[in-house]
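Chain A, query sequence.
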Amino acid sequence: MITLELISIILPVHNQADHIGEIVREYEEALQRVPHPHELLLIVNNCRDDSLKVCDGLAAQFPSVRTIHSKEGGWGLAVKRGLREARGDLLCYTNSARTTGHDLILILLYAVAYPKVIVKADRKIRDSLVRRLGSLLYNLECRSLFDMPTWDVNGTPKVFPRTFSRLLELAEDGDLIDAEFNAICRREHYPTLEVPILSTRRHGGKSTTGFRTAIKLYWGAYQLSRKLPIIVPVQQER
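Chain A, predicted structure.
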């Protein structure tokens, strides 16, 4: 264990008024088992429902919860906004619809035990054969393009120490931010630990990943590789 001033947990919220309260209450109860103070940042982005009102109510109920309103939408934009607003020295972001309180605590406790290592989820089970195949192809593509050692590029929660400052300079605004995250870890030689997560429960809503989105991800990963080429260490002659 190490002495931590604060753990920051970033939760992008998009049209989740019907279930974000359940998620936050589950997280707050689970986080009582972590022996360090925390803040829960609800990044309400481009919502067309009452998510902002619900999140403001949660912030009034729980002292550790903060609501941040963003008129712009996008997974990457919400994550980056959360990282800018976070005050902690251990930073975490996750897909709240997919992450149970148990899974969040498991990843955080690993991160506290290994403070100089990135800890992320490796989701082992998905909803359907088609989704599993699509995810496999995307992960294989990213492993090939970026020489990544990790298997689940998009797996969250992701936790890292603030001292890994290059991860505070993420540029992608959309779903490719997770590929960028892993590519930077590879380039900067940040050690990474993947923890198998077997949970399949979804709190609410439907996945927005369809065929067109998948194609955009595959093509986007290739374009990202042109901007973040693999750096091969120069071998010194003896």
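The chain has one domain: 7-227. The first helix runs from residue 20 to 31.
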